[in-house]
Records
---
Amino acid sequence: MRTQVGIVGGGPAGTLLSHLLHLRGIESVVLELRAREEVETTVRAGVLEDATAELLRETGVGERMDREGAVHQGIELRFGAAGHRIDFADLAGKSIVIYGQQQVVKDLYAARLEASGRIIFEAAAVGLDDLGTNQPKIRFRRGAKLDPGAGEIRFGGDTQEEVLHCDYVVGADGFFGPCRNAIPTAVRKEHTRTYPFGWFGILVEGPPSTEELIYALHDRGFALVSTRSPEIQRLYFQCDPADNVDNWPDERIWDELQARLATREGDWKLQKGDIFQKSIVQMRSFLCEPMQHGRLFLAGDAAHIVPPTGAKGMNLAVADVRVLARGLAAFYSSGDTEILDAYSETCLRRVWKASRFSW
Ligand code: DHB
């Protein structure tokens, strides 16, 4: 199989890149490890910054976001048991849109498939070759299934290894994907910081407790009230990263959140609902330098992880592929590689800032 740009990973970074390239007349093939339905239904990030939302609109995939997403003009910082509103619209002339990552990807899949774009689901990249030449290759195999317990990929059926021949390879395959490791260790510098705390996150089916997000500082630790949709709420409280979700029956979680979010007047009450997911996220930052090697370019979580504090992860991924799309368009229209050559430097400047903002 042959294409111009071979993209490993069909999350927001890889799929958006494929869409942006298509709009510029550049062909790509996306390899996604998971099944389409799984990606479209797994709740993940949900805060779209202004520039992200605007890009989706400008490129014709923002219609459902504008219909179903919620525009927030500010947030509340709650400390000393009192709320303080930060007005984004007033201070920065910007707003955020609450719209789940899985919805963004669903809209992008629909747009790509409508335009006869090629996304191969349940396909695992098993090796990258000839990245130092202008004919790099992705070896991949269909019928892949991730076994999360074993942390391994298994292959069903009697699938054979196939080769995707490309001009460029993009690794948008997340933190655990194989692409980053294709950058030789001699030139790859990885920066990692692991923080001594975690976030206990819950997903709740039920009504929202608040119209805007609340970030609360409390002696018992931080708490955040967020949302994904009018029906699905996302809440977090700071915890020991070594704690176990089994130690937290629902009532204990509600009591802890209520205690951290209580106001001096005692008039604020958390809306409870049906908790359908509990997880503990270790807070950490990670950054890989450079984000490119030969004809391989990394985008999104494959190159950098920020802790969820700043809600920056998906927005950084979108910013990466915006640069990449521009660089690839310049190459294909005039042979000019200036933007591509500076890709890593351009992106890392933003990523370092976002890392600092997020810790
Ligand atoms: C969410 C997470 C954040 O860190 C944040 O600042 C805002 C929202 C969230 O997951 O909803």
---
Amino acid sequence: METLFIGKNTIFLPEIGSTNSYATDLLKNVNLSEGTVVHTANQTQGRGQRGNSWNAEPASNLTASIILKPGFLNIKKQFFLYQVAALACYDTLAELLKTSHFDIKIKWPNDLLVNRHKISGILIENNILNNAISSCIIGIGVNVNQKNFEGGIKATSLKLLTGEDFSVAAVLQLLCSYLEKYYLALKNNKYDWITEMYLSHFFGLDQWLNFDINGNIEPLLVKGMSDNGLLLLEDRSGYTREVDVQGLKWVY
Ligand code: BTN
């Protein structure tokens, strides 16, 4: 699939600590074109959300960072970048897995689950100038051909789900085209449509799930997401809380 700008300029590194860190450093010194993709076959110090690490077996997975310049986006709307990236991952997985056999969901804010197992994670790092996002690095990891996951984590890969081998380059190409589609929608102010799409894939929506909030496990009803991107959870007394990602763990 052809794209207009995402993936037109690519930087491939056989091995690097973190594509996000590499892209961050590069942006400080070089005026990279919007849509530049940094990807590697072996990410040795991958970074995840909330200071976690992201481990990926060499030559088996997608580990890439895409540079965007959403100068049009007010920082109050930065959560839309997560929605756009998650939707691009969703569509990529849906196309590769032919949806009907697999339950693909976006777990707020930015995890992609298939049959309740994590297959993809997103780490976005923004550079802010005058209340707008001058540049951002969208780091995406997708488990493609990896078969073993250490530490008893609930993870899966395209290979584990289908028994087939996938071309990591083809997964990246698809991801770039879907990211461009949703990013252009964002640029065209299609905020409501983006959120509608995001909520249509929302893990646990309208279900009672257990959450670990600062160490306390409690059942809460998943109501969706507030305008500023916080998770809406209703408790048994009918009170709706807006919850930040800090201190929150889904128990599922
Ligand atoms: C998460 O689920 O916590 C987010 C994981 C993000 C991993 C990707 S892999 C490519 C890019 N480079 C990094 O160091 N992290 C992101």
